[in-house]
User: Which sequence fits this backbone?
């Protein structure tokens, strides 16, 4: 549809969180600290699981992919958000908005499927430990990781191409801190029923389908754990998947509040806070959760740091 008697929108204004200059500075410092911790934590996980011989297992292979995905996910939104907090004009071009939206959908969908692959890995480790290394061989793990990353391509291309092809002939102010689908959709100047039906179907498929796989995996894990005769064995088995279960709860809980709640129950402010939790807070918490609750990761971090210190102290002057 061509905008008749109106100029098509070429850029958008992101309202962000507040117009109060003092509050913007405080938020900038807070989010900069969070982003720094996020990058350091996830790069630490990537480094440790790559170099430590004790962590060359499927579980840590998927954890390394999750950390890399979290780095990419935050890179899509947080730098732009930080710039906007110290800028007078919070502008993003039409093309830039589409690019940001595409990668947001891409990495979000990919994370859904990667978390389901990690759940399956835990099920095999607990339910069939003797054949774990045979079942979760290097080739299968590689294909599962590639499949998880590529799963985000169809939904991101469909959602973004369809939405950005709709007419934007009127207001260009997005009441959000990044180009998410629902707030951008409000600016479309024609009926969006078909797109909303497609978006709901895509959301159910790319959020609920992998979540269903996770539920099935954990149902079978719980059944297996309950059948174990030893209380120590049950506790050890549960501890191997507790970190993943916490991460899944954080990610799916906040994503469901954003995309599966009725529109009438959502205010722009509450939507921003919920979006902030899974775009900024959760990526920071994931490496902390896996580090604090996993003795193998903590031990690997200590070994990596110790090797680095010894290497530096042994260098000739």
Assistant:
């Amino acid at each position: 549809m061509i905008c008749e008697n109106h100029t098509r929108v070429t850029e958008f204004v992101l309202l962000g969180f507040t117009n109060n200059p003092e509050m913007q500075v405080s938020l900038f410092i807070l989010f900069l600290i969070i982003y720094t911790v996020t990058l350091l934590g996830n790069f630490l996980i990537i480094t440790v699981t790559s170099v430590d011989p004790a962590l060359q297992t499927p579980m840590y292979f998927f954890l390394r992919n999750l950390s890399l995905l979290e780095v990419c996910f935050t890179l899509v939104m947080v730098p732009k958000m930080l710039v906007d907090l110290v800028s007078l004009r919070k502008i993003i071009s039409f093309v830039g908005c589409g690019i940001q939206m595409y990668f947001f959908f891409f990495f979000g969908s990919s994370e859904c499927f990667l978390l389901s692959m990690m759940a399956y890995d835990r099920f095999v480790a607990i339910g069939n430990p003797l054949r774990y290394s045979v079942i979760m061989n290097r080739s299968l793990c590689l294909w599962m990781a590639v499949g998880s990353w590529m799963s985000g391509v169809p939904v991101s291309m469909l959602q973004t191409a369809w939405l950005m092809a709709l007419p934007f002939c009127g207001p260009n102010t997005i009441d959000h801190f990044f180009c998410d689908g629902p707030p951008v959709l409000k600016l479309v100047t024609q009926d969006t029923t078909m797109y909303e039906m497609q978006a709901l179907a895509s959301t159910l498929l790319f959020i609920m389908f992998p979540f269903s796989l996770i539920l099935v995996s954990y149902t079978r894990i719980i059944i297996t754990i309950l059948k174990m005769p030893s209380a120590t064995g049950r506790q050890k088995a549960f501890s191997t998947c507790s970190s993943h279960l916490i991460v899944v709860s954080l990610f799916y809980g906040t994503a469901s509040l954003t995309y599966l709640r009725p529109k009438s129950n959502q205010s722009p402010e509450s939507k921003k806070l919920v979006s902030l939790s899974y775009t900024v807070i959760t990526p920071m918490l994931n490496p902390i959760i896996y580090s604090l609750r996993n003795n193998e990761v903590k031990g690997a971090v200590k070994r990596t740091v110790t090797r680095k210190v010894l290497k530096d102290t042994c260098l000739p002057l």
Q: What stands out?
A: The mean pLDDT is 85. DSSP finds eleven helices and three strands in the chain. The CA atoms of residues 34 and 222 lie 35 Å apart. The two ends are 71 Å apart (CA to CA).
